[in-house]
């Protein structure tokens, strides 16, 4: 895989729009590969480590933590994550949005 290709997006400006001790939001003014101007927001965080503990009997141990953002006991933000297992996948030409480069 060639990681030294030309950058497909042009960054016109970049600024930290908001920050706290745990993460920041960087806002970049860009030109997309199709020549359109836009704004791209990125949440920047330090690296993290997750450990999935499995008991000797094969049980996965989960810890619930109260999260103010969603007034419930689980993740850290208001984004719901859904994990799917896809089997028997056949690769074809991708169809994507202009800002997505695959």
Notes on the protein architecture:
The protein is extended and about 55 Å long. The protein has a domain at 10-73. The model has no long low-confidence stretch (mean pLDDT 82). Helix content is 0%, strand content 31%. It contains no helices and 5 strands. The strands form 2 sheets. It has a 3-stranded antiparallel sheet with strand order 1-2-3, with no helix packed on it. The protein is mainly beta and 102 residues long.
Task: Provide a concise account of the structure shown.
This protein is mainly beta and 102 residues long. Helix content is 0%, strand content 31%. The strands form 2 sheets. It has a 3-stranded antiparallel beta sheet with strand order 1-2-3, with no helix packed on it. Strands 4-5 form a two-stranded antiparallel sheet.
What's the topology here?
Blueprint: E1 10-19, E2 23-31, E3 37-45, E4 66-67, E5 72-73
Antiparallel strand pairs: 1-2, 2-3, 4-5
Give the tags.
three-stranded antiparallel beta sheet, 0% helix, extended
Shape: extended
The total count of strands amounts to 5
Could you tell me the radius of gyration in angstroms? 19 Å
Give the N-to-C terminal Cα separation: 13 Å
């Amino acid at each position: 895989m060639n990681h030294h290709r030309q950058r497909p997006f042009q960054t016109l400006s970049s600024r930290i729009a908001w920050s706290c001790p745990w993460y920041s939001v960087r806002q970049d003014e860009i030109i997309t590969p199709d020549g359109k101007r836009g704004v791209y927001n990125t949440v920047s965080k330090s690296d993290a480590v997750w450990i999935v503990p499995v008991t000797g009997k094969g049980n996965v141990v989960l810890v619930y933590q109260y999260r103010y953002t969603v007034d419930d006991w689980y993740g850290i933000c208001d984004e719901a994550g859904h994990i799917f297992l896809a089997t028997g996948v056949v690769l074809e030409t991708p169809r994507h949005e202009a800002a997505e480069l695959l």
